[in-house]
Design goal:
The chain is mainly α. It has 2 domains: 132 residues, no CATH class; 275 residues, no CATH class. Helices cover 77% and strands 2% of the residues.
Length: 422
């Protein structure tokens, strides 16, 4: 390999030839899996190898010859496709793959090697993923694709056009940052929603807590608490599942903070990591002592977070939090912010936290980090109340006590953040 590096054309030729051969082998394997009863197929492993070599040589000689070669290749497949139509076979996969292989030569010559490698891996992956793709297409709700497309449209078209200047002295946030916050938070929640809805349908309670924490640890806590009341047993597994949702909440907060404000994220990182490790350890302790009779019933903790009404509600709450926080800071300073943070913890904390991270309030990064931790801590106390009221006796007691302890520790970390890190 070291010798090849002194002769880049030799290295490129060998890479392209090997890639063409491997794609040919993969195409043969694909046909044996998908069309084992079809004897007439165009191309073998050698054919795809020669197509790759031809593309590499032709692009070196000149653009005209390269284009002529592609036209000849297309004409050959056109005749083959006409023959397939007479047999009521409509697939054009062979032509698409052959065209990509033909382009390997110009790709490796004109672009960085990682682009070539990415294309090669993508072709191999897609050829092997037909069964999984078909299952996913059958399972997914078409309305969710439409919902996702709407958000992409609003983000890609509207977001760049929004002004990036503060709206007013009472709203020190721009329209651009408002919608950016909606997009980022919604997409993070959407990851949990997709995993829960399509990849882990038959999940147990513990995995429900993990995935629910990506979306909303409060929502996951309520759902799991009510489920424990129905089951009237399995106190340890439900306690573990509820606590692990809070573990994921700490990590989720760090990701959101890091996206919007690196300095604040780093300032509170040690606290969030320590609290997440502590809560994960407690959750695992309960999980290790679990006793479940029968199969765990799959449950759902969330709805599609990309629904436009949900997005607009978050935007409204976000703007309201910016306004209220500005008024509180103006009249009561940092002490008022801490009190507000504690109160906000008994509601949806995401709009408040993102407002702290993105708005131009006259506070230090330490004061902003303190507000985030206090809000997260009081939110844990809210979840403790939910588990106490909704859960079965022992599950509610285990979860509530743990969440109260975590809440107190998180609030304490926020109050003493300037002087002490967990």
């Amino acid at each position: 390999m070291a010798h090849l590096l002194h002769h880049p054309l030799w290295a490129q030729f060998l890479i392209v030839t090997l890639a063409g051969f491997m794609i040919g082998l993969e195409m043969k394997s694909y046909r044996m899996r998908v069309h084992p009863d079809t004897s007439r197929q165009i191309g073998t492993a050698r054919t795809y190898t020669f197509i790759a070599i031809m593309g590499f040589i032709f692009q070196m000689i000149g653009t005209e010859l390269y284009l002529i070669g592609f036209v000849m290749l297309s004409a050959h497949f056109l005749f083959y496709y006409w023959h397939k139509l007479r047999q009521d076979r409509l697939g054009i996969l062979s032509f698409l793959v052959a065209s990509l292989v033909y382009g390997f030569g110009i790709l490796i010559n004109q672009f960085p090697i990682w682009i070539f490698a990415l294309l090669f891996v993508a072709v191999i992956f897609i050829l092997n993923a037909k069964a999984r793709i078909n299952l996913f297409v059958e399972a997914i709700d078409p309305q969710e694709i439409e919902t996702f497309a709407k958000l992409i449209l609003l983000s890609a078209v509207i977001l760049p056009l929004l002004p990036n200047k503060p709206i007013s002295p009472y709203l020190p946030i721009s329209a651009f940052k408002i919608w950016l916050a909606v997009v980022v938070v919604s997409l993070i929640s959407y990851v949990g929603y997709i995993l829960e809805s399509y990849f882990f349908k038959a999940k147990g309670y513990f995995l429900t807590g993990i995935l629910g924490g990506l979306y909303s640890s409060t929502a996951a806590t309520i759902v799991l608490a009510k489920k424990s009341a129905e089951a009237r047993g399995g106190a340890n597994i439900f306690a573990a599942s509820i606590i692990i949702a809070t573990t994921v909440m700490y990590l989720r907060l760090f990701v959101i903070a890091f996206i919007f404000n690196h300095t604040i994220a780093i300032d509170i990182s040690r606290n969030l990591v320590a609290l997440s490790l502590l809560s994960a350890g407690i959750a695992w302790g309960f999980y290790a002592k679990r006793k479940i009779k029968g199969k765990e019933d799959p449950i759902t903790t969330q709805s599609n977070p990309l629904e436009l009404p949900t997005a607009f509600l978050f935007a409204f709450l976000f703007v309201a939090m910016v306004f209220v926080t500005h008024i509180v800071l103006q009249h009561y300073g940092n002490t008022g912010l801490k009190v507000l943070s504690f109160i906000v913890g008994f509601t949806d904390i995401d709009p408040f936290i993102v407002s702290i991270l993105t708005s131009k309030f006259r506070i230090t990064t330490t004061e902003a980090g303190s507000a985030i931790l206090i809000a997260a801590g009081s939110n844990n106390i809210l979840k403790a109340l939910y588990t106490w009221f909704f859960s079965w006796k022992r599950a509610g007691m285990h979860s509530a006590v743990t969440l109260i302890i975590l809440g107190i520790l998180t609030i304490a970390a926020g109050l003493f953040l300037p002087h002490y890190h967990l």
